[in-house]
Amino acid sequence: MIAPSVDLYRAWLDAHAEWGPGAHEDGFGLLPSDDVESIKGFELWVARLVASSAEGWDGRCSYRWIVEDGRVLGGIALRHGDGELVRKVGNIGYGIRPSARRRGLATWALRKMIGEARRCGMERVLVVCAAENLGSVRTIERCGGVLEGIRDTELGPARRYRITVGETRA
């Protein structure tokens, strides 16, 4: 896992194209207003992600990209604090590009990010996924997630899991 980098512009665009249109690249902090198609827009977006990882920033969120052999395979984000966004979408969000799924990357990345949460002094994290996303359900449960419940959201039913960061499974 690495911090977002402008050097991966073409590799990120390749991953982005594989996902196709829509809001489903969890873990990348991509907003509808972000222009990632132009190099200038991509640079501004990456700068925003890097700035949000800075210590002391109010809405702090640590972004990491999952990269292998120059290919962007996914992204994961650790949202600090317990503000409204965290209560809605969780402390950790991640996404793996379709061609890289079923390789254990999400489990590996989630465990690494739980370790980062521990180093930041967090005791528990909330991880949320679509109720029907059985791949994420297995990933979260493999990493020690305990189901809190299922809630209706704007995007449909979502499972809410708590993970005690000191108790992640190996």
Write structural notes for this entry:
The strands form two sheets. Strands 1-2-3 form a three-stranded antiparallel sheet, with helices on both faces. The protein has a three-stranded antiparallel sheet with strand order 4-6-5. It is 32% helix and 27% strand. The chain starts with 8 loop residues before the first helix and ends in a 6-residue tail after the last strand. The relative contact order is 0.13. By secondary structure, it is α+β, with helices and mostly antiparallel strands. It is globular, with a radius of gyration of 15 Å. It is built from five helices and six strands; from the N terminus they run H-H-E-E-H-E-H-E-H-E-E. It has helices spanning 9-19, 39-52, 84-89, 105-119, 134-142; strands at residues 61-68, 71-79, 92-96, 124-130, 146-153, 156-164.
Give the strand order, joined by hyphens, for the main sheet: 1-2-3
Ranges where pLDDT stays below 50 over 5 or more residues in a row are: none
Mean pLDDT over the residues: 89
Order of helices and strands: HHEEHEHEHEE
Rg computed from alpha carbons, rounded to a whole number of angstroms: 15 Å
* Outline type: globular
Compute the number of helices.
5
